[in-house]
């Protein structure tokens, strides 16, 4: 079983903001898998599908970005509780967090097997509530040539994608989908080798 979690903020106000690229990418991946999101048993939307013989859960926390870890931890706890009869647990290495990164350029993907939050509040919340940073993450570049200053980055990530950026994202979407699919079918090492680069 694989668990892929896209981070973002719920509501139309945030729908096309840079900070919501995790939600946007998961919506496209759900369409690719021909599955639909529905309300979960907590503060998240979920969709379940299969890639080959592997069960894949897609999760979009609805707690707002800074509290993403609450929903992630609760989903894992509930899921494991329902599977106690077969003692199946979710291994952290089978979780992929899909998240924006303004420090790398748009058109770039960076997959890592673990690490710090890198200043990202959504990742920080997940690390806190899982009490571990030993989970893979797929950082999606949303940055420009000039990295926003500390005073500017909040307005930048909560800003709406510009027309030119949207065109790049449209071209990148097949690569995002292939990267997530590779995580499920090929494993993390091969995915990092093939997708840690600038595509556009």
TL;DR?
By secondary structure, the protein is of the alpha/beta class. It contains six helices and eight strands; from the N terminus they run E-H-E-E-E-H-E-E-H-E-H-H-H-E.
CATH first level: which class? Alpha Beta
Q: What's the order of the H and E elements?
A: EHEEEHEEHEHHHE
**Main sheet: strands, sense, barrel:** 8 strands, mixed
CATH topology, anyone? Answer: Rossmann fold
Q: Mind telling me the C-alpha Rg?
A: 16 Å
Q: In DSSP terms, counting alpha (H) and pi (I) runs of 4 or more, how many helices? A: 6
Task: Catalogue the unreliable spans.
Answer: none
Structural class per helix/strand content? alpha/beta
| DSSP E strands, number | 8
Task: Please report which band the strand proportion falls in: under 5%, 5-15%, 15-25%, 25-35%, 35-45% or over 45%.
Answer: 15-25%
Question: What features would you highlight for this structure?
Answer:
6 helices; 200 residues; Rossmann fold; eight-stranded mixed sheet; alpha/beta
Q: How does this model look, in words?
A:
The chain is of the alpha/beta class and 200 residues long. The protein has a single domain (2-198), classed as Rossmann fold. Helix content is 37%, strand content 24%. The protein has helices at 21-33, 68-82, 121-130, 153-157, 163-185, 188-195; strands at 2-6, 38-39, 44-51, 54-61, 95-105, 108-112, 137-143, 197-198. It has an eight-stranded mixed β-sheet, with helices on both faces.
């Amino acid at each position: 079983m694989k668990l892929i979690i896209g981070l973002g903020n719920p509501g139309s106000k945030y729908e096309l903001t840079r900070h919501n690229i995790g939600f946007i990418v998961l919506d496209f991946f759900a369409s690719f898998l021909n599955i639909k999101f529905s309300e979960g048993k907590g503060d998240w939307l979920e969709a379940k599908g299969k890639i080959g013989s592997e069960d894949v859960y897609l999760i979009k926390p609805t707690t707002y970005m800074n509290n993403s870890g609450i929903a992630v931890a609760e989903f894992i706890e509930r899921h494991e509780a329902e599977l106690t009869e077969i003692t199946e647990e979710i291994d952290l290495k089978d979780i992929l967090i899909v998240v924006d990164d303004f420090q790398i350029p748009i058109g770039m993907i960076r997959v890592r097997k673990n690490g710090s939050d890198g200043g990202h509040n959504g990742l920080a919340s997940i690390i806190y509530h899982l009490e571990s940073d030993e989970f893979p993450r797929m950082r999606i570049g949303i940055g420009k040539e000039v990295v926003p200053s500390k005073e500017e980055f909040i307005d930048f990530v909560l800003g709406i994608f510009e027309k030119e950026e949207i065109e790049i994202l449209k071209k990148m979407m097949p690569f995002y989908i292939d990267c997530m699919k590779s995580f499920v079918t090929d494993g993390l090492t091969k995915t990092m080798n093939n997708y840690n680069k600038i595509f556009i």
